[in-house]
Amino acid sequence: MSVVLVNTQGCVLDARSLIDKGYLQCIRVRENNQKSHVNCRFKGQCFQILKSHLDAIASVAADGGNIETLQKTDKPTKKRKRKRSELNQGEIDSQAFHKKIRSVVLEGTKSLVDSARSLGYLNGTSTTDTVKEPLPSQECSLSALCEMAKELPLVDDEQQEECAQSLVTADGSTSHVDLFSRVTENRADWATVVTLMGEEYVIPPHTAFLLSDFTKIQPLVHYGRRFDLIVMDPPWENKSVKRSRRYSCLPSSQLKRIPIPLLASPNCLVVTWVTNRPSHLRFVRDELYPHWGVEVVAEWLWIKVTTSGEFVFPLDSHHKKPYEVLVLGRFRPSSDNETSSSEASEVPVEDQRLIVSVPSALHSQKPSLSEVLKPYLGAEAKCLELFARSLLPGWTSWGNEVLKFQHTSYFTLTPTDDGAGVLEDEAAEDCTDNPTVTQRLSSSAEYSVDK
């Protein structure tokens, strides 16, 4: 029940179920080539948002707890006192945007939540075994490793034979997998738990990924695929993120260097997560998409609710809102004269659709859009996520933290009832035979689509 329901306002998602769908069959691979079945589920406590943020603060205060830390997350830093009427242009624009969409959010969310409750979802229930457990707190060092990888010696053209590699070698090893300059593929029909860089990660079936920052995206360009759907969640510049140092931000102007025209097929659906800063929304609509040749076709809203269907923040909060924006567009290559027929056959994308879900308590973990966007794609569509922090079955993913939420600390792994014995050869065979070999990009080449 990953997609709980769909109606004219939008849909309700069960984000955890969407993740777990990719791990119905999971095999653990040891360095000695021993393989065993395991049950794999994303930890439920990550989605146990039982109360709105302000209710949680009040609850802690009522119990005599220290609410200083919680209050800091809801209140902006006080630099100087000012009158409420002294709003800067950004705040004025934010209020205007909120006023424009408020009724859509309020009425659409009520309709979707009421329908979900009638199906037994968003009724506030939870499992006690997950509520008592603390959140996973894996320290992610992948972006730092990407920085270190930039200092590696360049590979000679004569040695560049492949741009793709199998996750598990023929002898069951993953120790020599080049994660930084080649696209890595799990070609198996099942999820695989493997050791990479000394840590265990869960890799979904039929997935591919490249671990790098945008200056080393060339192997993805030369991967040989054009994608029908590209979803991206850029690390937008944000004062709170800079203060917390959770991750490195990327200036908006640098996003233009992402080579969408070389990755997108004609009429590719391009979807960008945008913060609630109007300047970011204007940049995507008026600068970024036109620079790539992408036509804006719709704006959707992700509505974040508790397990009982309440907004996680007050709808009219002056600081944080319970929604985020997605800008959807179609790639229209100007040099392609054969796109008119495909444009005529493409499914129109409705505007102002709502996606309602309980958000993850983990910072910057967005719900999967794989099921929501299926109606707007053709059969066998090739899908790509940029700035990814997790993997999706059947998708290609890129980012400098692309494996972050694939670490086993975010999953519950238990042996199957049969004792998790060694698999039979025919069941355990990995897909390393006859790997796809394509031209690998020269590491010395630099690429930019800036005009």
TrEMBL record:
<feature type="compositionally biased region" description="Polar residues">
    <location>
        <begin position="433"/>
        <end position="451"/>
    </location>
</feature>
<dbReference type="Pfam" id="PF05063">
    <property type="entry name" value="MT-A70"/>
</dbReference>
<dbReference type="GO" id="GO:0008173">
    <property type="term" value="F:RNA methyltransferase activity"/>
</dbReference>
<dbReference type="InterPro" id="IPR002052">
    <property type="entry name" value="DNA_methylase_N6_adenine_CS"/>
</dbReference>
<dbReference type="GO" id="GO:0005829">
    <property type="term" value="C:cytosol"/>
</dbReference>
<protein>
    <recommendedName>
        <fullName>Methyltransferase-like protein 4</fullName>
    </recommendedName>
</protein>
<dbReference type="GO" id="GO:0032259">
    <property type="term" value="P:methylation"/>
</dbReference>
<dbReference type="GO" id="GO:0003676">
    <property type="term" value="F:nucleic acid binding"/>
</dbReference>
<dbReference type="InterPro" id="IPR029063">
    <property type="entry name" value="SAM-dependent_MTases_sf"/>
</dbReference>
<feature type="region of interest" description="Disordered">
    <location>
        <begin position="427"/>
        <end position="451"/>
    </location>
</feature>
<dbReference type="GO" id="GO:0005634">
    <property type="term" value="C:nucleus"/>
</dbReference>
<comment type="similarity">
    <text>Belongs to the MT-A70-like family.</text>
</comment>
<dbReference type="InterPro" id="IPR007757">
    <property type="entry name" value="MT-A70-like"/>
</dbReference>
<dbReference type="GO" id="GO:0009007">
    <property type="term" value="F:site-specific DNA-methyltransferase (adenine-specific) activity"/>
</dbReference>
